[in-house]
Amino acid sequence: MNFMASKQPENSLLGPESDSQRTLYPYVTGTSVVALKYKDGILMAADMGGSYGSTLRYKSVERMKPIGKHSLLGASGEISDFQEILRYLDELILYDNMWDDGNSLGPKEVHNYLTRVMYNRRNKFNPLWNSLVLGGVKNGQKYLGTVSMIGVNFEDNHVATGFGNHLARPILRQEWHENLSFEDGVRLLEKCMRVLLYRDRSAVNKLQIAKITEDGVTISQPYSLKTYWEFSAFENPAQGAIGSW
Amino acid sequence: MFRNQYDTDVTTWSPAGRLFQVEYAMEAVKQGSAAIGLRSKTHVVLGCVNKANSELSSHQKKIFKVDDHIGVAIAGLTADGRVLSRYMRNECINYSFTYDSPLPVGRLVVQLADKAQVCTQRSWKRPYGVGLLVAGLDESGAHLYYNCPSGNYFEYQAFAIGSRSQAAKTYLERRFESFRDTTRDDLVKDALMAIRETLQGETLKSSVCTVAVVGVGEPFHVLDQGTVQQMIDAFEIVAEQEGPAAEPDVDSGQEASAEPEPEQGAAAGEGVAPMDI
To answer: Which Gene3D superfamilies match (chain A) (predicted)?
Structure first.
């Protein structure tokens, strides 16, 4: 032990004590976001839950927001980091508008910008603890991409975060096709969200569906999905079980 | 222009409201060898006259590729031009990396202009002594801009800068209305004709000029000497057949009307005091 080492106060930003300033684990989190391309643009769904660990604490959290004229951002993970990202994007869009020159950042540009931000934070070991879904339409071109907290990013016809990757994507792989109508798209998303509601313990039954087209963004009023718990297989689930589980 | 007691610092105004150092910088542009630019709806062509110091040396590089969709031709202090080209390339690369998208020309030009303006308002700096013709493509089509040492910039249908550029401007003024809808090859021919005007009698050959093109589906590139010489030969033959005063073939039927008044702000006259715009 080095008794001669200089002691620094706990809140200083020098040396190992500076770790208290880095993100170590998330506190208030949102669960899956699911999105798909349809005929006129992008449809995105997310529930309105903000979990505090295993407690389903906040039930009116809007996890999807419009960005500029052409994009829609959905986030899962740490809600405060999502709010920070919205502040970054607000500034980005503001400067873009201040040019006042007829050019505007489209969904591809915003997605790339977010990728750079997420990856750079990851490199500093201070990540924004989110998985983001960025969708939009510009000049008739539909765009749908995702970025994770470590900077993994890609585009696809349908994307999801968190549990959505395991429960929703397989459904989408089977049933998604080019040029879905609005109604079919919503039906497909609701099917995915229902499975998540049954099987993801952090899901709450209050969701919003957002659509973005060339004309702009619409985010629905919150609503709930009908669920059915009377399946006979669920009636006495422990009936044939062996052991104390 | 004559020396006076207000022309020592760029940060000194004259009683008439002029910054003489900035105007002297614009003189430097006029002394450089000519550069011209013209655009259609889908393409922009840049051309310049390349005068080597002697037969033994190579000529100065005056046209720079900034990105696949932007290029620049300079006139004046070519060293300043090189530095600004490097700045422009850097800006384009950074934007491309962050947004995976090409930097809109209009924005690059404003950044360049703001950079030039800084040098007109610091006592320890001097204005850049180079005029830049920036050619580029963005979502709204093909653009040609002229950036001044003063920090002003203007958009043009066609323009010429440097020594004997007035001759080229006269030619362009006569023909600019046809440029919008003309074909790419005709645009290059017009550029070569404009360059020939600045040579004032000297033979136009590909060794004295450089031509570059950028257009929809065509990234910015400098045409090689062989291609340029072929194009020159093609229209020189026609010109010989039709007589010296005639114009080359094709074009959208716009015969030279004797109206030298530029309507769209193209090619502002050189008699205007530089700061009046």
So the answer is: Glutamine Phosphoribosylpyrophosphate, subunit 1, domain 1
